[in-house]
Amino acid sequence: MTKKAASSRSSARVVPLRKGTTIQMVRLACPDAAQCSLIAESFGLPVLDSDGIRDLHEKLIVDTAAALDEGLGERAMQIHLQRIVGAYVGSAHGAGQFYSRSVTEARDATAKAACDDRDEDVGGPVGFDSAAQRKREFAADMALQAHALRMAAEGAVNAYEQVVGEVWKPFERPVENPGRSVDRKAAELQMAALR
């Protein structure tokens, strides 16, 4: 009986899905407003208007939907906005991942520079930044960029919910497996020949 149960389960077809990027993934990868403000103060960078960025992008998507309202049906609008919001979320997530790598490189360079026994990390002539300092400044710049894109993505997600009436979720596309479709076509041709 166990063998029969196992064989019937193996014949069931499982379609793997390609997971999309969620807004929660963006929030985990990109700095929030408090961290962004701290970074801006620490590095002498401009403090971003987080709420303004989010609100502007929300208004942009809502206004775009209003302009397209007569030309698109409800389902077409949902698909269109799904793609637009997905692009914002994907862009922010990519920036957040790049920011994380930049922070790791800055930490590594700073830790190496703190070691007194290393000659290659000694600071250059007066007036020139060390490699570790440049990496920290680069990471700070990437933090502001990732945060700005996070706010734009959050505004787009809010607009989607406002226009469509549902919480935005990433589109999950089935993983393409051309071998199965060829097998299925071959099976159909063989069955047609047996008729």
At a glance:
The chain has seven helices and two strands. It is mainly α and 195 residues long. Helix 2 (23-29) runs antiparallel to helix 6 and helix 5 (74-113) packs antiparallel against helix 6 (131-164).
Provide the fold topology.
Elements: H1 2-11, E1 17-18, H2 23-29, H3 33-43, H4 50-68, H5 74-113, H6 131-164, E2 173-174, H7 178-194
Helix pairs in contact: 2-5, 2-6, 3-6, 4-6, 5-6
Q: How many DSSP-defined strands?
A: 2
Mean pLDDT: 82
- Largest β sheet strand count, sense and barrel closure: 2 strands, antiparallel
Q: Report the sheet-strand fraction.
A: under 5%
Categorize the overall geometry.
flat
Structural summary, described in words:
- This is ArgG.
- It comes from Mesorhizobium delmotii.
- This protein is mainly α and 195 residues long.
- The protein has a domain of 130 residues.
- It is built from seven helices and two strands.
- The protein has a two-stranded antiparallel ribbon.
- The chain is flat and about 80 Å long.
Main features:
195 residues, two-stranded antiparallel sheet, 7 helices
